[in-house]
Amino acid sequence: MENQLHGPIKNEFKRLKGVYYLDNAGSALYTDSQINKITDDLIDNLYGNPHSSGRPSNICDELIENIRHKILKHFNTNSEKYSIIFTTGATGALKLVAECFKWSCTSHKLKKNSPQSKLNISTFGYTLDNHTSVLGMRELATGIKMLCLSPTQVTDATEVYLSTSSKSNNSLFVYPAQSNFSGVKYPLSWIDKCKKGVLNKYTENIEPSKWYVLLDAASYVSTDHLDLDLYSPDFVAISFYKIFGYPTGLGALIVHNHRGKPVLSRKRYFGGGTVEITLSQSRYFVPKTKLHEWFEDGTINFLSIIAVGHGLNTLKRLTGSMVSISQKVFELAAYLYKKMCEAKHGNQKPMFQLYTDTDYTCQKTQGGIINFNIIRANGDFVGYNEVKNIADNNKIVLRVGCFCNPGACQMHLKLTNQQIKKNHKIKGHICGDNFDLIDGIPTGSVRVSFGYQSSKQDADKLYSVLISSFRQNNVIKSPNLEMKLIIGQTCLKVSRIFVYPIKSCGFIEVNRWPVDTYGLKYDRTWAIINEKGVCITQIQEPKLCLIRPQINLCKSIMVLNFAGNLNNNSVTISLENYSHYKIKTGKICIGSQVKGFDCGDEVAFWLSTNLDRPNLRLIKCIDRTSIKSNNHDKSNMNILAANQCSYSLTTESTVNWIMRKLKDDITDVDFDSVLFRFRSNILVSGDIPANSEVNWTKISIGKIKLLVHSPCVRCKIICIDQTKANQNPNILSVLDQHKWKGKIIFGIYLKYENLISIHDMFIGQHVDFQ
């Protein structure tokens, strides 16, 4: 096994620049020479719309036909057996079959007292491990039987029920050649087996069907050879970017001419050259006879199709064959799998929960994918977002979540239907959000996947980062944090106060400030929402920190400036006069939603212009509720757009501690640049050990009584320089080496113990703690 990229392949990916790319199941990487060949081709040649006449169009049409043949040859077949229909991707191919398949949706009524009578309807069968694009097919196959099977059920189906009735119905079975979740390769022998009718054993009270097979090959063909001469599915769905990275948004449905073509008979829409003749004043048309001409509505994406030819050429030139790619990615996955199986904490508990369907000993059954979660020494799961943040900071590209495969995710994580529905209805968890753990249980996992450009160095880098970041010698606490403190033997004071009027935007530093039931008055009172109604933060847009607010309490106005704006333009909004504005809601990333007044078009335009993001709106929050509920989130009664609690606090000792740790990594580090990254409301001075605040339970600031809610668990926002919006991962990396109970924390969250009356907070106030 190679230790690093060699020869031609190494020279093809100069843009990686130290990045370890382990998301090949998400998208393959295009090569430098591939893009150069495409560019040279388009510069040197004149290609016209293939639906037009003239030499440029004729040349383009001939080239596209040659590329169809080249694609079929790549899968070891020809145009006598199969046809290529270009689509927007594998999802488009799956949707096309669902829309056009000749379903048998009518049935005769069961006769009374006649148990032998059976329905004459189609069945849509699919495996539990499938992409959401397959699950979406159900909605276009209405009025028929749904059949969701486990892999074991398909394997165990051995009885053959062939229908000889001339009125037999057509049924469709869909399965992935390779799971995009675990990388298991499902037997291609299922194709012939299912076409023989073995699945009829699972369809009681239904007439035996004639079964057709649709193979979702998008994941499989990215790193393996699909031999359509040896195996003959009726339909195959693929995406080209999964194979060689470019072009995106282009795939194909490969249709068996003798079996698949006759049952694609429900196509109704036509347009852009798919008919031989049609009339405007009468519903009359004659479809074109060639399969792809009838199904490819409108002008095909001809320039991208031309790029497919260069992708196939490059792949063959660099790798020789898909068989060699399959061998390579399997060996890399097996190598990493073995290391992860052996990884243990100091107490000999395993570090990794691996979600596998094989033992990685056979290339024929396992692809180049590993799926896992990390377990702490005490048995708690690490949220996959924490893993992703660590990977990002070490230039490792991987993927987290459920990978658009809810069935496999549910099966491997052992999540019940009730749990998933509860997580959505009560907790507000949806696909793609930041909920990685709910009640300590993972909602998804981490996936790494290898490609032909991958090397042993990629696997070793990932492994070493995960070991150094998450392996624990001591279960109870990290020995690196100075936590001991003798209560009552030091004098603490408020040294600085910060207000953040708009969630995730710049701060106002004040000497004295009023407080109200939500905390410091106007702190995290406004939020910026995008066109989807989601409150954006610096995770999505680091430039939010360049929005600098100024509040004039006497005039009751807030002025917003944008740092670095050469025009020095600003916008002014009222602090209180909002009765005439519309009410909007915005989803907060931690699963609640805020309701507030829309602040108008002027500030919306200002935000969108300066942040270069369309359709942004500023809302002044007036209420916060749990998503999917009309009830208040009881744990967040006294906050609006803040993440956790009314206040966040840290100490000068803790900031100085992190500064000392950073001096070897950041030459221009200073106290303020570190402090500002953590976006605390209150800074406390006094002679106390660093990080000792995490042991406090209560504090008093003057007459303000506060309870410690929890330590502040930190994300990659602390890597953003709050004065320039530049990012440096060193701070998160340092904190990662000094975890508290396995978590990356800095400072503490505070909430009111019992707010009886309103008082100002000011610098110099005495701080008592317990």
Summarize the structure.
The chain has 770 residues and is an alpha+beta fold.
Outline the fold blueprint.
Layout: H1 7-11, E1 20-21, H2 32-44, H3 55-74, E2 82-87, H4 90-100, E3 123-127, H5 132-135, E4 145-149, H6 151-156, E5 169-176, H7 190-195, E6 209-216, E7 235-239, H8 241-244, E8 251-256, H9 260-263, E9 275-278, E10 285-287, H10 291-295, H11 302-319, H12 322-342, E11 352-354, E12 369-374, H13 384-393, E13 396-397, E14 399-401, H14 406-413, H15 417-425, E15 437-438, E16 441-442, E17 445-449, H16 456-470, E18 492-499, E19 508-510, E20 512-516, E21 519-520, E22 526-529, E23 547-552, E24 557-562, E25 570-574, E26 583-587, E27 592-598, H17 601-611, E28 617-626, E29 647-651, H18 652-662, H19 671-678, E30 682-685, E31 698-701, E32 704-713, H20 730-736, E33 745-752, E34 760-762, E35 766-769
Total domain units? 4
What is the first-to-last residue Cα distance?
58 Å
What is the correct CATH architecture of the largest domain?
A: 3-Layer(aba) Sandwich
Mind summarizing the main beta sheet?
7 strands, mixed
Structural class: alpha+beta
Q: Taking all residues together, what is the mean pLDDT?
A: 87
- CATH fold-type name of the largest domain: Aspartate Aminotransferase, domain 2
| β-sheet strand percentage | 15-25%
Uncertain segments: 107-113, 476-489, 628-636
Per DSSP E runs of 2 or more residues, the count of β-strands stands at 35
Helix proportion: 25-40%
CATH class call of the largest domain? Alpha Beta
- If strands are numbered along the chain, what order do they take across the biggest sheet? 2-8-7-6-5-3-4
What is the count of DSSP helices, taking H or I runs of 4+ residues? Answer: 20
Q: Tell me the overall shape.
A: globular
